[in-house]
Queue: 3 jobs
Job 1
Amino acid sequence: MHISADHVFAALASPARRELLRLLLDEGTQPAGRLAERFEMSRPSVSEHLKVLKDAGLVAETRRGRERLYRLEAAPLMEIRDWLTPYERFWRDRPTSLLD
């Protein structure tokens, strides 16, 4: 299943979802409960954020007994990187213009 860049950008729009991705990047595969402990929101809210990330292809879910484990799936970020690559020249050539 191909995930559109729009779905990935929409998933990345939330600071909570970006933090979930950072945790999975830095700390590896984790159960939903351990991830939820890191946030000041209900576990069902964290689960909803994880669902959005899963639907965007940014995380994968596996079950171990009653526990759901989540791991980072970085492939969709490659498409975003490819989209952003042409803008790197702009950033590199005009660093002071970004401060205006």
Job 2
Amino acid sequence: MSFRAINQKYLEPGSQILMVLGIVALCQPWNMLLHAYGLTIILVGLIGFNITSKIAPEEQAGTGHGADARNPGAQH
């Protein structure tokens, strides 16, 4: 499994989940420690998502095209 496949399968969704957990931590009323670090958790997830979303997915086997196969006019 290549790094691009790991990124697409685990890292990008993981950073999205981290952002949602940060929002939950910020809004919950029971644990002051989670509330104090809620914004930090959101920011770590946001930075992680910004990095992982810039990595292009693996090219599909046999076609020679990556994600731009659906939208040939896309520019990066």
Job 3
Amino acid sequence: MMIRVVYKNGIHDTVVPEYLNFLLESDRIKMFRRSTGWVHVGVDPIRTQKSPSYGGSERRTASSSPSDIFTVSH
């Protein structure tokens, strides 16, 4: 499946989905076409493959094992 895109310089093109992700991450396109209509980058919500960086403290430890966590006392 090819996806229609419009680059920031106004050129129209069709690309494979994997390349669309690259174009979105490198901020090279103005809009792309979904089955529901045109998506305007920076205006409409889109999913990205980047996960937000976690700024909190690390709560997992390498020394924890299931036996440390789940102890049964009678």
